[in-house]
Amino acid sequence: MQVNDGRTAFFWFDNWLQTGRLIDITGAVGTCYLGIPRTAKVCDAVSQAQWNVRGHRSRHFRELHARIQREPVLDVEQGHDVILWKHSEDDYKPWFSSKQTWEQIREHKTTVIWSKTVWFAQGVPRFSFMVWLVVKNRLATGDRMRAWGLHQSCVLCGERDETRDHIFFACPYSFTVWNNLAGRLSGYRTDPDWEITLQFLTNNDLQYLDKILLKLVFQTSIYHIWQERNKRRHHTGYRSVDQLIRLIDKAVRNRISSLRYGADHKLGRMMQRWFEMTQTT
Ligand SMILES: [Zn+2]
């Protein structure tokens, strides 16, 4: 808190002396020793242009008393108190930033190599979230459900064991979808193996737009294949390979059209590129 007229800042509960909250330093008894009520504002501790705080004779509170006396007495001409938010160590600003706050309270870990494959500006957040779950192998696939005594085979092809690596993309159904949409774009380097696929998406020599498109097709495919798997499992729908390909293609186009970054010609080129990639298949 940057204290100016002292009418907003709480004496005991706002950090106005840069020593932390005073109530934490003195405990509840401090209010008696200093003669300042719990609910007092900083301006209530001033009378006749002087700090009116007791405690200089107390062994415990002498130091705090002296610290307050060293503080310049409030000046009502300076305007209102300003609430400051911590943006980083020793950096306080009068506005709140959720990003900077999150950066300070979160646990920092080293960046995983696949982070840009999952999270990127042109991605669809709910697709990205789904890919993140898949990368962490956190979807409720058959092999994970076995711990609950349930046996689940692949509803897309009938294979006995449903695992993450089977659905993405060892399964003939999902590989046909993935290969059809990403084959040309990846220079015909699609692979049924999950690790190889993730590695290729993370590190390849494709040109800029194709890199983005490939990640976009990847996350859109993952999302829709998993959706198809759930529909079949709960008997609420059934789409053929061709129908799912068309659905994913449309979702990719919708996403490209909704992007509003950079100049329009970039957007146009991206759409054009996607048309080229899907025409011959
Ligand atoms: Zn399958």
Question: Can you put this structure into words, describing what you see?
Answer:
It holds the Pfam family zf-RVT. With 281 residues, this protein is mostly helical. It folds into 2 domains: 22-105, no CATH class; 115-279, no CATH class. It is 47% helix and 4% strand. It contains 13 helices and 4 strands. The chain has helices at residues 22-26, 30-34, 62-70, 98-105, 115-118, 125-135, 142-145, 164-170, 172-182, 194-202, 208-233, 241-258, 264-279; strands at residues 46-47, 50-51, 85-88, 91-93. The strands form 2 sheets. A two-stranded antiparallel ribbon has the order 1-2. Strand 3 (85-88) and strand 4 (91-93) form a beta hairpin. Helix 6 (125-135) packs across helix 11, helix 8 (164-170) crosses helix 9 and helix 11 crosses helix 12 (241-258). It is elongated. The structure holds zinc ion. The site of zinc ion (ZN) has 7 residues, from loops. Residues 154, 156-157, 159, 166, 171, 173 line the site of zinc ion (ZN).
SSE order, one letter for each helix or strand: HHEEHEEHHHHHHHHHH
* Number of distinct beta strands: 4
> Separation of termini?
63 Å
Helix content: 40-55%
- DSSP helical segment count: 13
Shape type: elongated
Assembly of the depicted chains: single chain
User: Poorly predicted ranges (pLDDT <50, ≥5 residues)?
Assistant: none
Radius of gyration: 31 Å
Biggest sheet architecture: 2 strands, antiparallel
Mean of the pLDDT scores?
91
- The portion of residues forming beta strands comes to under 5%
- Adjacency order of strands in the biggest sheet: 1-2
Task: Quickly give the structural class.
Answer: mainly alpha
- How many distinct folded domains? 2
Bound molecules: zinc ion
